[in-house]
């Protein structure tokens, strides 16, 4: 049975499976592309430079935590391809408002900064984004092939 599952998983990966959930574990700096509760693909990621805890305001360099939607693709980004995360949601907006701050926005899953993709072998060892989730450029191409706009993303510590 395990061999059949492995063969099906390999076939699905090669057949450009449609991912139904993206899970991010900030504490391990890992992203998992899920299909039917099974891990299809695993990525090592870079996060916001101040990753622990939920994003509360613009400029805090935190990657949000919670359940969001990957709601649009952005190909004209300052980074090699990007998919937007639906942060801030209504709860995020209300929390920021209660604190008298802006919640920020433009949180994405993206590749490397344009022109610097060749440095990803070093960059991916550090949390360097302003709150986004970074992959290498090759990984971002695969991500976009497997993850469609409208897919849920769960981000947790």
Number of helices: 4
* Derived structural class: alpha+beta
Quick check: average pLDDT? 86
Sheet having the most strands: 8 strands, mixed
- CATH architectural grouping: Beta Barrel
Unreliable parts: none
Number of separate strands: 8
What is the CATH homology-level superfamily?
L,D-transpeptidase catalytic domain-like
Strands in their spatial order, largest beta sheet: 3-2-1-8-4-5-6-7
Order of helices and strands: HEEEEEHEHEHE
As a percent range, the share of helical residues equals: 10-25%
Shape: globular
> What is the C-alpha radius of gyration, as a whole number of Å?
16 Å
> Which topology does CATH recognise?
L,D-transpeptidase catalytic domain-like
Query: Which CATH first-tier class would you pick?
Result: Mainly Beta
How far apart lie the N and C ends? 33 Å
Number of domains: 1
């Amino acid at each position: 049975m395990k061999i059949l599952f492995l063969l099906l998983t390999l076939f699905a990966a090669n057949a450009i499976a449609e991912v139904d959930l993206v899970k991010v574990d900030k504490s391990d700096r890992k992203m998992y592309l899920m299909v039917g509760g099974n891990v299809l693909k695993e990525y090592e990621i870079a996060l916001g430079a101040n990753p622990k805890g939920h994003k509360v305001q613009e400029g805090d360099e935190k990657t949000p935590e919670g359940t969001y939607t990957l709601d649009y693709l952005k190909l004209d980004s300052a980074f090699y391809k990007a998919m937007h995360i639906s942060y801030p949601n209504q709860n995020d907006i209300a929390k920021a408002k209660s604190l008298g701050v802006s919640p920020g926005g433009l949180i994405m899953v993206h590749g490397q900064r344009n022109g610097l993709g060749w440095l990803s072998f070093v960059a991916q060892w550090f949390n360097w984004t302003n709150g986004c989730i970074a992959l290498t450029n090759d990984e971002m191409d695969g991500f976009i092939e497997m993850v469609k706009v409208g897919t849920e993303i769960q981000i947790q510590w």
